[in-house]
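Case study: 5-methyltetrahydropteroyltriglutamate--homocysteine methyltransferase.
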Amino acid sequence: MTVRPNVQSAILGFPRIGPKRELKAALEAHWAGRMSADDLLATTADLRARTWRKQRELGANIIPSNDFSLYDHVLDTSAMVGALPTLYGQETEQVALKTYFATARGSQGEHEATCGCGHGAAPGGEGVPAAEMTKWFDTNYHYIVPEFTENQTFRLTSTKALDEYLEAKALGIETRPVLLGPVSYLLLGKARNADFDPLSLLPQLLPVYAEVLRSLARAGATWVQMDEPCLVTDLNDEAREAYRLAYRVLTDVVPPTKVMLTTYFGGLGDNLETVLWLPIDGLHIDLTRAPEQLDAVLADARPDLVLSLGVIDGRNIWKADLNAILDRLEPVIDRGRTVILAPSCSLLHTPIDLERETTLDPEVKDWLAFAVQKIAELEILTRALNQGRESVREILDAASASVACRAASPRIHDPVVQARTADRTQMQTRRSSSFEVRRAAQVRRLNLPAWPTTTIGSFPQTPAVRKARADHGKGVIDAGAYEAFLREETARTIRWQEEIGLDVLVHGEFERNDMVQYFGEQLSGFTFTRNAWVQSYGSRCVRPPIIYGDVSRPLPMTVEWWRYAQSLTDKPMKGMLTGPVTILNWSFVRDDQPRSETCRQIAFAIRDEVLDLEAAGAPIIQIDEAALREGLPLRRSDWQAYLGWAVECFRITASGVADHTQIHTHMCYSEFNDIIRSIGEMDADVISIETSRSKMELLDAFSDYRYPAEIGPGVYDIHSPRVPAVEDISALLKAAAERLPADRLWVNPDCGLKTRSWPETEAALVNMVTAARAARA
Ligand code: GLN
Ligand code: ZN
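Here is what the predicted structure looks like once written out:
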């Protein structure tokens, strides 16, 4: 008689925003003073209850708790261990909601300044800026960066993990609480106003984690999930030693509760040996990003180590090929090891439920799986392993059929596009002349003054602009009325730019809902959803486009707007485009060919647009690559490959134009040291970057590297409503000229102005032009 395997399915985390973005609505109502804290908490408790029940209904065996967050799970961890910076408020027992949100969002101090209730007034802070936020690994989710002081102490100031475990238990649902592990937590943080390694705080931090684990053990938790995603990144010996210390201490305190150490977003690689020596009870590995690590783990893991295999892609939206996964899993099960099946990572990064998409093309819809569908896939996989494939044959066959249909669909294959990327020639990635030769031609054509002034593209997307777009979407105003409105906004903005004396103008981008969506909607191979929201940070959600097929550009996308804009002025009008790498990095990308190949296809589509703009007469074309840096792989050893094709793609877009056509690019971030060589290789004529907050120091990277082309270092921070004084801007221009030849410098803000309002935009740009004129004189 053969023993039936007992494979279980586990979920590492579920999206928090709610199927109808209930969390967003509740948070924003609370922040606006329209919902009390009690009502907010009741709403979120209801959301959690529904989430737990849904997962149980879908057949998940191991359901997480404490994966929910009111804002961010890293911030929750700081709240748990008493590490919220004191300027947001100092609490004795539990972190107050107000302090928590003040850390996340900054505090305008309205409440503190007027309530007069005494406690917390001063520390709550008037007008305290929000804590720093940054991207969670290579996702589009942003976390609040923990900040530590040198003599940081830790203590338990939030029982959220225990509370939510008990909350589920009271509903009759046994859960596996999730904690961000202590080592990743410290590695994700930074030292405030002192130079020390946050990891050195580990010995002080561990007792708080131990206390949390003990409380969960006492409450009856049989397993705890400890997320340590930093284990898939490059670690030094200190970090590895920190892992050994942390898990020796923590696994000692919690028997009989067991620790499932979860790693995701990549392979363990050179950290594998360290991990396999840890006294943990279970290990989760990501087999979608790093399928090859399965063999190494199986070969070397202790026989009693429970393995959680991340076989369903938690970072993408494609239906899985269940039979193919089973082919790989069955031999593993036969070895008799205890195995759990799971998504590769938390489902936080996927939309919630495909069933809510009622307008998607049915053929494409059949290829997709969102969080709910992925849990159902796991349930089928576990059933197939436990009871044999025959028990679920029909469902398995349907999945295979759908995967096969997608692979064969004429909708995704365009031989013309494929031929184009296959025989791309050197000619297509290289401009015909060197920068110096091009520069001479551009100087003759453009005839710009020294210190030329310009903006990055967008002008304020006012409530009126957003309303007109929404009304047009709802059919309240027709296409003609909407177009007339946009033309008027554009014309007004151009007149105003002329009046204040800007040198190179933009049309303002009023017709664009979003810098990626606007292009995706006009390219073939893209589709869009109605409700497939993914959390970006706090209450902010995005709906990434889905790239499902070969990409091409059936018709010009921006030429008519450019032509109209240029017809209103004699000043040079920039053509404005989003670059291929940014479009790729902000979309769900097809998984049936390398990302580089999809990016090349987008690049050729944008190249077509560049050439059409040039033919229409555009003297300057800006190709924004806002997200090029954020696409860097987690491991340094993978950087060169990524940068190689990313740069090539940019060059495909830009290299077809004549010498006298000036190519600009824009990148809104300020860390260039690591990638400066690649920035140079992009071979743009002008690059505008974010620099104002770094006081131009980051230009050192450009001067050390002897960056050959022209640069527009941002002279004021568009993230703040503050209007920069002329002297502030002049000081920055001076600082820039100390680092780079003045005849290579442009004058522009840090980024687009779409989030700002008109009064501050007007005042800031007038000051900017004044400062540029002073620099000329
Ligand atoms: N041209 C875009 C704008 O001005 C660039 C935005 C960005 O870089 N994020 O809005
Ligand atoms: Zn920008």
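For the exam, be able to explain this: Residues 439-776 form a domain with the TIM Barrel fold (CATH 3.20.20.210).
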